[in-house]
Design goal:
mainly alpha; 4-stranded mixed sheet; 24 helices; 4 strands; disordered N terminus; disordered C terminus
Length: about 575
C-alpha cells in the first residue's frame, strides 16, 4: 500500500481525469445560456388568456372526436350553414392533444417551449449575420421589444412564428448576397441542399398549422426580386438576370413553396381563402385588424425601430441588401394597414438592422477608449469549466422554478388564479354550469371561446373570436350593437329570442347601464368582472322579426370561411 501511495504522489497526473476543452465555455456563453433560461421562465409564467385559445382547443377536441374537419362552426348556432375552412386544424389538434395529456399547465409549457425555440432560431439567424453571440442576443431582445404588445398571444400563431423563424434561418445560412453577383462567384456553384429539402417540408407543415404561411411567400419572393435588382445594378444590363443562377433558384424556391402549401385538406381553396381573408368586413371592428396609429404602443415600437435603422444606415459602412429592403417595405406597409402584422414586422426589421449594428459597433470597438475598456476586462475572457458548471446550474434553476418542472419533479401545481388571466370569467362560468341557460344567450365576443370551453355543454353562445369572420354581416352588426349598448336593445333581444345576457362590466359600460334598467330582466349573478341577467318574463319574437332575420341572413355571402 505504501508503494502505491508513493507512486500516486510521484505521478499524480496518471490518476487525473481531464475533460475535453470543448466543454469549456466563456463568460459570454454563460450569459447567453442564463438569458434564454430566464426567457423560458418568463414565458412559462404568462397566464392563459380567455380569448381564442380555448376556441382552438375546443376545435381540436371536436376534430379528434369526430375524426374529420368541421364544415361549419360547431359552437355558434347563428353561423349555421356558413361553410368554413379549418385553416389551423393541425395546430388545433396539437393544442387539444397537449391539453389532454398535460392539462392547462401543458398548454402553458408548450407555449413557453415554442417561443423559446423561436427565439433560439432568431438568435442563430442574427449570429450568422454578425458572428457575435452577444449581438445576436441583442437582436432577439429587439424582436421581443418591438413585438412586446403581442408577445403574450397564445394561439396557433405561435406555431406560425416558429415556422417563420425556421424560414429565415434556412434563407440566411444559404443567402449568397454578400458575394458579387457574377458568374464566377464561388457562391454561384454552391448547391443549397438545405433550401431544396427544407423549404417544401416547412411549407407543407406551415400551411396546415396557420394561415401565416403566405408571409413566407412574400419573404421568398423578396429575395428573388432583391437578387434580381442586385444583378441588374452590378451587371448594368437586364439580361444578366436571366443568366444568374440565384435568381432562378429563388424563383424556383418560391414556386416550390407555393406548390408544397397546396398539400392540405383544401388544396388551392386554402391559398385563395387565406389571401382574401383580410377583406372580410367583420374584421374591421377587431382591434388587431385596425390600422396602425403612431400615438400607440405599437406605433411607438414601429417608429423607434425605423429611427434606429435610419441612424445606423447613416453611420454604417455595411452594404444594404436589396432583398432586405424589399421585404422590409412589404411588412412595414402591412403593419401600417393591420396591427397584427407587427409579429412579422419585428423580426424582419431586426434582420435588416443587425448587419449595420454589427458594423457600427465593430468600428466603435477599435477606438482607443473602447480598447482601454476592453483591456480592463481582459481577465474575464477565456474559456473555463467553471462557466460551464454555472451554465448548467442556471439551466437547472430556471427549469426547477418554472411551472413546467411539475411534470418531471412533481410538486404542487400552480393555483388556478395564477394559471388563468385575471380577466377570465371563471366565477361567471361556474354559475352558468350550475344554472344552464335555456335558449340563446348574448355574450362578449372575447369571452365566447372560454364559455364554449368551460361553460355548460351545448351553451348557445352568440359570438366567439373564431366566429367573427364566419357569421353573416347582419349577425355581426347586431352583435356590435349589443356589445356597444346601441339603441334598439329590446327589439334585438326579441329578434334573437335571447333569454340570458352575460355582460363585461369594464368593457361594456353602456350595455351594463341599459341592462340594469331593462324592463322584464333581472340580474341573477354579479361579480367584479361582470354579471348574468335573465328574462323575468318571456317575450318571444314576432313572426315578422323571425322572417326578417332569415331573409337577411340568406342574402349574406355564405362563402365566408374560418381562419385564425
Amino acid at each position: 500500500m505504501s508503494q502505491i501511495a508513493e507512486q500516486d504522489e510521484a505521478n499524480p497526473e496518471e490518476f487525473t481525469v481531464k475533460l475535453s476543452d470543448r466543454f469549456a465555455i466563456e463568460l459570454r456563453h454563460l450569459l447567453v445560456v442564463a438569458g434564454f433560461g430566464l426567457c423560458f421562465l418568463y414565458f412559462n409564467y404568462i397566464p392563459l388568456y380567455c380569448s381564442d385559445l380555448w376556441g382552438h382547443v375546443s376545435y381540436g377536441h371536436w376534430i379528434l372526436e369526430h375524426r374529420e374537419l368541421p364544415t361549419e362552426d360547431p359552437y355558434v348556432r347563428l353561423a349555421e350553414g356558413v361553410p368554413i375552412l379549418a385553416t389551423a386544424w393541425l395546430s388545433q389538434v396539437l393544442l387539444a392533444v397537449i391539453e389532454r395529456v398535460g392539462g392547462v399547465e401543458g398548454l402553458s409549457c408548450a407555449f413557453a417551449i415554442t417561443v423559446l425555440l423561436t427565439f433560439l432560431l432568431y438568435a442563430r439567424v442574427f449570429y450568422l449575420q454578425t458572428r457575435r453571440a452577444g449581438l445576436a442576443c441583442v437582436g432577439v431582445f429587439l424582436v421581443w421589444l418591438v413585438d412586446f404588445t403581442r408577445h403574450a398571444v397564445i394561439r396557433p400563431e405561435i406555431f406560425g412564428t416558429l415556422c417563420f423563424a425556421c424560414l429565415l434561418w434556412l434563407i440566411v445560412r444559404a443567402d449568397p448576397s454578400d458575394s458579387e453577383a457574377t458568374s464566377d462567384s464561388r457562391s454561384e456553384d454552391r448547391v443549397p441542399w438545405g433550401l431544396w429539402f427544407g423549404i417544401p417540408v416547412l411549407f407543407v407543415i406551415w400551411a396546415n398549422l396557420h394561415g401565416s404561411f403566405v408571409v413566407g411567400f412574400a419573404v421568398l419572393g423578396s429575395f428573388f426580386l432583391g437578387r434580381s435588382l442586385q444583378v441588374v445594378w452590378q451587371a448594368r444590363q437586364l439580361r444578366a438576370v436571366f443568366a444568374d443562377k440565384w435568381v432562378r433558384r429563388w424563383l424556383l424556391l418560391t414556386e416550390l413553396a407555393v406548390a408544397a402549401s397546396l398539400i392540405n385538406p383544401y388544396g388551392m381553396d386554402l391559398l385563395i381563402h387565406t389571401v382574401l381573408f383580410s377583406s372580410n368586413p367583420n374584421l374591421n371592428d377587431i382591434l388587431e385588424w385596425f390600422r396602425l396609429e403612431m400615438a400607440s404602443l405599437q406605433g411607438l415600437a414601429v417608429g423607434l425601430s425605423c429611427l434606429l435603422l435610419t441612424v445606423l444606415l447613416r453611420h454604417s459602412h455595411a452594404r444594404v441588401k436589396p432583398a432586405f429592403v424589399v421585404i422590409l417595405l412589404i411588412v412595414l406597409t402591412s403593419v401600417c394597414l393591420r396591427i397584427r402584422m407587427l409579429t412579422w414586422y419585428a423580426p424582419i426589421v431586426v434582420l435588416t438592422i443587425m448587419p449595420h449594428l454589427a458594423d457600427v459597433l465593430g468600428r466603435m470597438s477599435k477606438s482607443q477608449a473602447s480598447a482601454a475598456l476592453a483591456s480592463q476586462g481582459v481577465r474575464l475572457r477565456g474559456e473555463s469549466f467553471r462557466y460551464t458548471l454555472f451554465a448548467a446550474l442556471s439551466v437547472w434553476v430556471c427549469f426547477a422554478f418554472s411551472p413546467a418542472s411539475c411534470f418531471v419533479l412533481g410538486g404542487k401545481p400552480r393555483d388556478v388564479a395564477q394559471v388563468y388571466n385575471s380577466e377570465t370569467p371563471r366565477k361567471i362560468t361556474e354559475y352558468l354550469r350550475q344554472h344552464p341557460p335555456e335558449g340563446q344567450i348574448v355574450n362578449p365576443q372575447w369571452w365566447g371561446d372560454w364559455l364554449v370551453w368551460e361553460g355548460p355543454p351545448g351553451l348557445p353562445v352568440f359570438m366567439t373570436t373564431n366566429a367573427v369572420h364566419v357569421v353573416p354581416s347582419l349577425v355581426w352588426r347586431d352583435y356590435m350593437a349589443f356589445a356597444t349598448g346601441q339603441s334598439g336593445l329590446e327589439r334585438r333581444l326579441d329578434r334573437y329570442r335571447v333569454t340570458t345576457m352575460v355582460v363585461d362590466i369594464a368593457r361594456q359600460e353602456q350595455l351594463a347601464l341599459q341592462v340594469r334598467k331593462l324592463p322584464g330582466w333581472k340580474i341573477d349573478y354579479e361579480d367584479e368582472l361582470g354579471f348574468v341577467a335573465t328574462r323575468s318574463s318571456t317575450a318571444p319574437a314576432t313572426g315578422e322579426d323571425a322572417v326578417s332575420l332569415t331573409e337577411d341572413t340568406s342574402n349574406e355571402n355564405l362563402s365566408k370561411e374560418n381562419s385564425d
